[in-house]
Amino acid sequence: MAERPQRVTIADIAKHVGVSTATVSYAINQPSRVSAGVVLQVNEAIALLGYRGNAAARQLRVGRSEAIALIVNDASNPAFTAFAAAAETEAALTGRFILLANSSDDPTRELAYLRFFESQQVGGIVLAPVGEVPEELSEIANRGTPVVSLGNLGGASSVPFVSGDDHAGGVVAMKHLIHLGRRTPLFVGGPLPQFRYRHQGAEQVAAAAGRVLESHALAAATVKEAFRAISAMPLEQLLSFDSVFAGNDLLAIGVLHALHDRGVRVPEQIAVIGYDDIEFAELAIVPLTTVRHDAAAMGRAAIRTAIGPKATTSQTYPPQLVVRRSTVS
Amino acid sequence: MAERPQRVTIADIAKHVGVSTATVSYAINQPSRVSAGVVLQVNEAIALLGYRGNAAARQLRVGRSEAIALIVNDASNPAFTAFAAAAETEAALTGRFILLANSSDDPTRELAYLRFFESQQVGGIVLAPVGEVPEELSEIANRGTPVVSLGNLGGASSVPFVSGDDHAGGVVAMKHLIHLGRRTPLFVGGPLPQFRYRHQGAEQVAAAAGRVLESHALAAATVKEAFRAISAMPLEQLLSFDSVFAGNDLLAIGVLHALHDRGVRVPEQIAVIGYDDIEFAELAIVPLTTVRHDAAAMGRAAIRTAIGPKATTSQTYPPQLVVRRSTVS
DNA sequence: GCATCTGCTTTAATCGATTAACAGAAACTT
DNA sequence: AAGTTTCTGTTAATCGATTAAAGCAGATGC
């Protein structure tokens, strides 16, 4: 509990060693430029005095920080976990740090974080947008901060993205249901931008097979909302569907529980397929069939894009079907 | 896609309006000190030119940023979700931002983030430590950055903490099992610091009731590890236990699945109780009995502590038992 | 009429680190 | 031996914003 309200600066180190601040700075950042002896003394002094540097001062001079911002619309969705972990690892490789921010599906908050991070002069911004890609993001890019959108969501089109191929994913999911002989599918998730392409892909396949894909809108993409939606549906209407394609696994889990509570057998009466392959998909009451992307590869790619000076190339990753008991008994 | 590599500074605004930079700064930060007309013009110019400020410059001068760092050891654990959401809301109230960082249970990474955030001069640091509270954290506190430990974990003792009352939680959990007539409990989670007090509380109650609480160590606190542990246990040994207290809900879910796969009935043959009451506890194959704390209150308290200039008061929150079917059929 | 006060604005120092430009000494060329 | 490199170190400008102190009108007081 020592009293040391004053922060240790580079000047303290310089005084302690008996050289100029410039030399200390060189010793820290370009050790080869100064004599070995001085480097040693500087390092000793740093350890002794507890010097930690002042990132603000450094940034002001250099113009960028070693941080990369990752703004997500819903940090509680486990689908981000694998992505974020890979991003973290990739960032650590080059000595960078990931700053995760949660916009909680609030566009206002998203904007606030975007502005905050731009003024912080982070080295790059990865945004999983609440809705469409906001204009602000492409403006930030124009002003010099590398940005990437996580997911291909429409909106500001000049922003590069890293995304799973959602359209193809929707195709794969619906083909699976059709192959299983299902004829009356329901899409749960409604017109939310995050699900747009998944829905379109599925719809296209359904139409090609002469089926109609009904769509049920949700107020929010949460387990609870999906549960409520299915629970509130008249049984007769519910049983007019023989399969459900949920916009993501959280919704699918909500659907599974609602069906379970109402005594509807899965997959016999209704088959259920989700999207993302989160950890809990496999652990659901009925193990969940789902579609996955290589989240680790996407995480790495997003960071690499957000680091490169002029990032303009978008990348798309193919879907992979993961069959479990919720569609095949 | 306009070409504007140059960032807009306060000087650009000043020139545009025809005043000094000082006036612009006052107009932004203390509008009452400047004439209304100028404030108006400044705001117009800001909007027109797209001024976003330079947080580094501001920080260098002011000494602190409006960001609060939240470093967690495992961002994929849903137990953090409610906590983080409340923290976010509380921070937003005072115009602050939460920067979430994930140490991924790596002490090296934890240290790197601590140093990074200190050099960033964030307004406060909330740390959910990998193991015990590191010395570095209390040194950071001594150097002037407010810090809080999330969880009471031993280690650097001078650091204030916000924590559930884990000892009491362990007591509540074990009392529940004993009331149900269980005689041979197993603790899953081993000697990990995060579970220390939960285990101690449970052990104490078991001893008082004349029972022995066996403990099974895990290499990591993950669903998979718990699953493996139970799956690898000889059936005879496994069935010598009539109940399992898992260090947290993730472990409990792993246990539930392993038991399910081996055909052990829950709760008839083995009752299972977890800790944290994560969203998926209720949604597990057998809805999970668990112990919860008021995570939202803890999130708010942590932020308030991390904001106050001299935070030294620790706060503990009482546990609450949530009974579901994994202990009572 | 002269001093004082008020309101608005500017001047200039400052935060802590980086780095171009420079300088002195030692080492190397030819 | 004179010129050229190389090696170390210093000086001083700079990044962009904040803010104490000072300046300067115009209003008010007596």
Write the layout of secondary structure elements.
Two copies of one chain form a homodimer.
Chain A: H1 10-17, H2 21-29, H3 36-49, H4 55-62, E1 67-72, H5 79-93, E2 97-102, H6 107-120, E3 124-127, H7 135-142, E4 147-150, E5 161-164, H8 166-179, E6 185-188, H9 196-208, E7 214-216, H10 223-232, H11 235-238, E8 243-246, H12 249-261, E9 271-273, E10 290-292, H13 295-307, E11 315-317, E12 320-322
Helix pairs in contact in A: 1-2, 1-3, 2-3, 5-13, 8-9, 10-12
Chain A binds a DNA duplex (30 and 30 nucleotides) through residues 7, 9-11, 19-26, 28-29, 33-35, 38, 53-63.
Shape of chain A: elongated
Spell the H/E element sequence of chain A.
Answer: HHHHEHEHEHEEHEHEHHEHEEHEE
Rg estimate of chain A, integer Å: 25 Å
Give me the oligomer status: homodimer
Instruction: Kindly report the average pLDDT value of chain A.
Output: 92
Arrangement of strands in the largest sheet of chain A: 2-1-3-4-5-11
Query: Strand fraction band of chain A?
Result: 5-15%
Count of individual beta strands of chain A: 12
**Largest sheet of chain A, described in full?**
6 strands, parallel
Structural class of chain A, by secondary structure, is alpha/beta
Helix percentage of chain A: 40-55%
How far apart lie the N and C ends of chain A?
A: 63 Å
Largest interface, chains and sizes: A-B, 57 and 56 residues
- If helices are DSSP runs of H or I spanning 4 or more residues, what is the number of helices of chain A? 13
**Poorly predicted runs of 5 or more residues of chain A:** none
